[in-house]
## 1
Amino acid sequence: MPNKFDFAFFDFDGTIADTQQGIFNCLKYAFEKVGLPVPPDSELFRMIGPPLSEGFEDVFGFKGDEVDLMIEKYRERYRAGGMYECTPYAGIENTFRTLKENGVSLSVASSKPLPFASKLLEKFGFTDYFDYISCPPMDKVHMDKTDIVNQALEMNGIKDKSKAVMIGDRFYDIVGAKQAGIPVIAVLYGFGNRQEFEEYGADYIAFSPEEITKIILGE
């Protein structure tokens, strides 16, 4: 029986790994370093999902050079150890292994800068599961989720978009995938919720990595 999807694009934060601790620590460090009060966790939580520049602008109202400074301070703490303050979700590696064994090509499609995503995949021992990593470069060139998904489609040479699926945990993943013309599996074990997924029109909702496997293989 053929797979329902032959190409799977995985978001990183909230889909492959629980990265909340590291993100919060880096955000708090950035606010402290520029002499601003640290926002409550409920506000910091809104930074999980979008690119840093978009988050600092939309969530906290920073502009221009202020955004650049906040990103600089955030990454100062991130490089110093914040990036490693995360844990892969239970069962996600088995999902990668099973999909690969069944001929599904895997890619990372994340707003996390490419060097960071590559290092974390290596740390977790996940590198060999992935054929491509579609992430923005470290410089300030802005890539939204649609750009990232389109880049993954191009990297894989995909002509029939119905055979590719995005897996993510926030509405950014849903919007980006739909604008790029592919369906979405939204995961409930990450940072999003059912109301968000239904509002933005996720094609599938998975409670666990095991359910991701079943959806992709058409079981």
## 2
Amino acid sequence: MLREISAGGVVVRKRDGNPWMAVIELPPQADRSAGSPARKAKPVLALPKGLVDKGEKPVETALREVYEETGVTAEVITKLSDIKYIYTRSWAGGERVFKIVSFYLMRYLSGRINDIAPEMRIEVARAQWVPLADAQKLLAYKGERQMAQRALEYLDEHPED
């Protein structure tokens, strides 16, 4: 079984006294079923994340991926946790992969959300700010919803952040 190590972030900023987080909308997947009628799929919202490059530390990856996928720069407040899961690739012969994703809580510093390089549009349809309190109903993946919940709990316990 292959192993992949990734890292990402829950980037927050305050608006009207409430925390908002940066999310990415994944590009829609084409329906490859023969004869299937075209239909509008519900947008898939996720946290920015990506593979750790050789020689890179996970925290460095998380900061890089946040910038590449959202257009904003951030600083790390704390590590939230790791998500571990197994998935089967839909490419490369359908190999099974054991994946670990380290997530960090980050504070927004600068930049405009969705101001990303054109070549990133194959990975990110758009980036946007959403209320952190709405993460449970907006994020598509259970592990990422858990990370957003941890971020919310951390911020409740550390209002100075």
